[in-house]
Design goal:
four-stranded antiparallel beta sheet; 32% helix; single chain; 35% strand; globular; Cyclic Phosphodiesterase, Chain: A; 8 strands; 5 helices
Length: 178
C-alpha cells in the first residue's frame, strides 16, 4: 500500500514567504515539522491505495470532470485547531465558493479511494511537534497577527509518500477561464 493525497501549492514567491513563518515556528517554538514540509492546501487528505495500481489513481485524477477555472486565494488570518495533544496553527483562506466547488468536484471523483466528508481548507504553519505549552505561547502571539498572501490556483497535484517525504506524482491544470 502507498499513501497519497491531493492538494495545491502557492507559487514559489509566496511559498518562500510562508516558509519564513514556518522558520519562526521552528526557531522560537520548536515546531520544525511544518518547516520541513512544503506549503500547500489539502483538497483530499491522505489515503492508502495499492502502489502497484497507481495508474488507477492518476487516471481518475486526469479524467475527472472539472468545471472550476483558475481562481484567486487570499490568506490573511491565522487560525488554529486547539487539540490538547496535537495543536495546529495555520493560515486560513478567506471564504471562497470556488474553492468549495473545486473540493466538491475532486472529492466526488476521488471518493472511491477516500471519501472526505469535511473540508476545512488551511495552510499549516505549525503542527505535530508543537508542544501544548509552545502552542499556548505561539498562539497568544499569532492569533492577532495578520498575513497578506494571495495567489492564483491554476492546478492541483497528486502526491505520494515515498522515502519519508511527499513527492508529486502528477499535476492537473484547472480548465482555462471561459
Amino acid at each position: 500500500m502507498s499513501l497519497y493525497f491531493i492538494a495545491f501549492e502557492p507559487p514559489p514567491e509566496v511559498a518562500e514567504k510562508i516558509r519564513e513563518i514556518t522558520m519562526d515556528f521552528a526557531e522560537r517554538f520548536g515546531a520544525e515539522r511544518a518547516h520541513n514540509s512544503f506549503p500547500h492546501i489539502t483538497l483530499i487528505p491522505p489515503f492508502n491505495y495499492d502502489g502497484q495500481n497507481e495508474s488507477e489513481v492518476t487516471g481518475r485524477l486526469m479524467k475527472m470532470e472539472l468545471t472550476v477555472s483558475p481562481f484567486e486565494i487570499y490568506l490573511r488570518n491565522f487560525n488554529c485547531f486547539n487539540k490538547p495533544k496535537s495543536p495546529v496553527i495555520f493560515l486560513e483562506p478567506e471564504a471562497n465558493t470556488t474553492l468549495q466547488k473545486l473540493y466538491l468536484e475532486v472529492n466526488a471523483a476521488m471518493s472511491i479511494f477516500n471519501y472526505a466528508q469535511h473540508f476545512h481548507p488551511h495552510l499549516t504553519v505549525a503542527f505535530r511537534d508543537l508542544s501544548p505549552q509552545a502552542f499556548i505561547n505561539a498562539w497568544s502571539e499569532y492569533r492577532y497577527k495578520k498575513a497578506d498572501f494571495h495567489f492564483r490556483v491554476e492546478r492541483i497535484s497528486l502526491y505520494k509518500h515515498s522515502h519519508g517525504k511527499w513527492c508529486p506524482v502528477v499535476h492537473r491544470d484547472l480548465p482555462s477561464d471561459r
